[in-house]
Amino acid sequence: MKFKLRQLEAFRAVAETGSMTRAAQKLEISQPAVSRLLSDFSNSVGFDLFQRRQGILEPTSDSRYLLAEVTRIIDNLEHLEDLRRDLTERTVGHIRIACLPGFATSHLPGVLVKFLKDRPGVTVSLEPDRPERILEWIIGEQYDCGLTDGFSGHPATISQDLFIRSVCILPEGHSLSDKEFITPSDLSNERLIHTRRDSWFFQELSRAFGSNNVEINSLVEVRQFTTACIMVKDGLGASVVSALDADAFRSSGILIKPFKPRVFHRLSIIQPASGPSSPVVLDFIDTFRESLEPYISKDTKL
Asked: Is 178 helix (H, G, I), strand (E, B) or coil?
């Protein structure tokens, strides 16, 4: 047994108005069209839908039970249409984001404020953790996207890499402040604050120093660039960090200098490979990527 939505709408409209004429006006169709829809619907269900009492069409005892279910169906379809429109306009949805701890406290909050400002129906879960844990979450489809580094690929994920320029940061008033750019040779006598030795970035930095026959003079090994920026700001050593993190401390008084040869911080945006992401997730990824455009290098050759 198949019912048409227009039949259900005509049935409810007549039940609400008590009149074929007023129902036709409400549905913006002709009265004969309403009559035909009701006749077809009555034939389908196998009983009379209305009885006339004092000139008003009233639902029969059987159709009163049917009316409640028809109303629920139409309301649900209207809700579905509202949801479809909101999804099309990217105004509702929930995004689950896993990210590096540094992002959760520096760059990402500002991105989310901008993103959510015009999307009052969108909510976000943000969970910071180490790269290994982020990968586990994405593989297990516990999060919609992960913002990580040092990612080497996995068959259960899809990813895109962003190569962020690096810079040298120095305490204010440092003896190298007049140099246009900083090289490994310039840092040969400087105590360095650097990322973990097992990180992709440190390996790239080590190659850059090695190519200039300079050994890294290690002072402090940190997990986050933000930590290095804070230490340099307070006068402890020098560091080579991503331009994105350094820029957040520009007004604090640290010196920011280009670093040569070029070294890149490779960020990866990863998603579960099991199926397409929702439009609102894809919009967030686009917004995040756009926020990094001033720091992304188009040429990743050293």
From this structure: coil
What's the domain count of the chain?
3
82 CB-contact burial (10 Å; exposed 0-12 / middle 13-18 / buried 19+):
exposed
Q: How remote is the C-alpha of 135 from its chain's centroid? A: 16
Strand (E) or helix (H) holding 42: helix 31-45
Q: How far apart are CA 80 and CA 265, in angstroms?
A: 44
Cα–Cα distance list, 287 to 94, 132, 161, 250, 290 (Å): 16, 25, 15, 23, 5
DSSP 222: E
Q: Residue-wise over 264-297: b if at least 16 C-beta within 10 A, else e?
A: bbbbbbbbbeeeebbebbebbbeebeebbeebbe
Residue 2 is given by DSSP the state -
> HSE on the CB side for 142, CA within 13 Å?
11
Domain that holds residue 102: 93-161+269-292
Express each pLDDT in 100-155 by its tens digit.
Answer: 998 898 899 999 999 999 888 899 999 999 999 999 999 999 999 999 998 988 99
In a domain, 21, yes or no: yes
Structure tokens at 27: 């549905």
Question: CB within 8 A of 107, min separation 6: which ones?
Answer: 244, 245, 248, 291
Per-residue tokens: 238: 């020098």
The letter for the amino acid at 190 is E
Q: How far is CA 181 from CA 140, 169, 176, 215, in A?
A: 44, 11, 9, 19
pTM assigned to the model: 0.69
Domain presence at residue 101: yes
* 199: nearest Cα among 266, 102, 292, 127: 266
pLDDT tens digit sequence for 10-39: 999 999 999 999 999 999 999 999 999 999
